[in-house]
């Protein structure tokens, strides 16, 4: 059967590194080294979906769908669990940042977090527990902005701490060579050897996880009974405030994001795993702990409304940008070719 052909237009310019990385990714898929699987059932068990997009920001066929029952947004096609190590080590960062693998972290160190924070979101909750010693774990620690910041803050308060991290990228370890943070190559299960954490950081990681039920089991294995879980993901409801995506859902959507969360749909998933929300916003920054939470509710309507709002903002943003481009071109002509614009 031939599927209906959908047209995709790139909204972002790609550089040479990105174009060659897409070719490499395609080859790995054709060769069967990166496996792709189709999702037919939602995390909640629902089977009725509505398509939100057919492509990701690179026009690769990793479209998304929203579950009509719980509102959780997931990819129709995802990269299989067993292929993630290869994908994150070889493809992900050169594709996202447009720089060669060997230069990734040189480049990343110059970028600051998107949300300015005077202190870590989780710090007040951690301090309120009045622990004398705190064990920190970070999954997918990459450049380590979150874990390094928290270590610094705890040191300032004179609280003993030990920090451990894991990442699929072999380049990541290099970021921690001159620190006391011990980092290993691998996924969440690789942290088991370090005992149990008082605080587990999952910053821009949870939306990449393929099998959430398995991930929740693994999280439980590596945190203490009173441990905190900090989860940060690019919140879907907040898209209308995210200029970095041009407010565009297609730009926001990327092949590595298996799920797009709102605070409601994230809390539903966590609740299934036996975690309750302590505090969170739609950015999303959130703190969970073990415990039963209130009954789950559907995030469907809120998400549909938010996507509509951001679509309106995206259109006016595009219009404004094309107007500025027009004025710039016009001034260039008027001021001569050597204009300073
Ligand atoms: Zn669902």
Automatic annotation (TrEMBL):
InterPro entries from the UniProt entry: SAM-dependent_MTases_sf
Secretion signal span: none
A Pfam family hit: Methyltransf_23
Transmembrane segments: none
Keywords for this protein: Transferase
Single GO molecular function: transferase activity
Transferase as UniProt keyword: yes
Keyword Repeat carried by entry: no
Protein name stated in the entry: Uncharacterized protein
Taxonomy of the source species: Bacteria, Bacillati, Cyanobacteriota, Cyanophyceae, Synechococcales
């Amino acid at each position: 059967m031939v599927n209906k052909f959908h047209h995709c237009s790139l909204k972002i310019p790609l550089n040479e590194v990105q174009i060659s990385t897409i070719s490499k990714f395609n080859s790995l898929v054709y060769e069967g080294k990166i496996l792709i699987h189709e999702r037919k059932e939602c995390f909640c068990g629902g089977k009725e979906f509505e398509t939100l997009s057919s492509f990701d920001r690179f026009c690769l066929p990793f479209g998304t769908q929203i579950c009509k029952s719980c509102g959780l947004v997931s990819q129709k096609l995802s990269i299989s669990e067993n292929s993630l190590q290869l994908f994150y080590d070889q493809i992900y960062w050169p594709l996202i940042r447009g720089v060669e693998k060997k230069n990734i972290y040189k480049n990343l160190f110059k970028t600051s977090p998107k949300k300015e924070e005077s202190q870590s979101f989780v710090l007040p909750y951690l301090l309120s527990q009045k622990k004398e010693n705190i064990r920190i774990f970070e999954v997918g620690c990459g450049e380590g902005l979150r874990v390094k910041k928290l270590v610094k803050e705890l040191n300032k308060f004179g609280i003993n701490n030990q920090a451990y991290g894991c990442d699929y990228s072999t380049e990541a370890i290099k970021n921690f060579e001159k620190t006391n943070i011990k980092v290993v190559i691998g996924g969440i299960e690789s942290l088991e050897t370090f005992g149990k954490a008082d605080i587990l950081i999952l910053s821009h990681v949870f939306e990449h996880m393929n099998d959430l039920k398995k991930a929740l089991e693994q999280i439980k294995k590596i945190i203490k009974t009173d441990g905190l879980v900090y989860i940060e993901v690019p919140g879907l409801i907040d898209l209308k405030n995210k200029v970095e995506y041009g407010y565009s859902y297609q730009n926001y959507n990327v092949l590595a994001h298996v799920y797009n969360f709102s605070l409601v749909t994230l809390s539903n998933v966590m609740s299934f795993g036996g975690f309750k929300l302590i505090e969170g916003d739609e950015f999303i920054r959130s703190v969970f702990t073990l415990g039963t939470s209130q009954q789950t509710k559907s995030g469907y309507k809120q998400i549909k409304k938010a996507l509509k709002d951001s679509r309106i903002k995206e259109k006016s943003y595009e219009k404004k940008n094309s107007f500025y481009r027009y004025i710039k071109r016009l001034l260039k002509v008027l001021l001569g070719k050597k204009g300073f614009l």
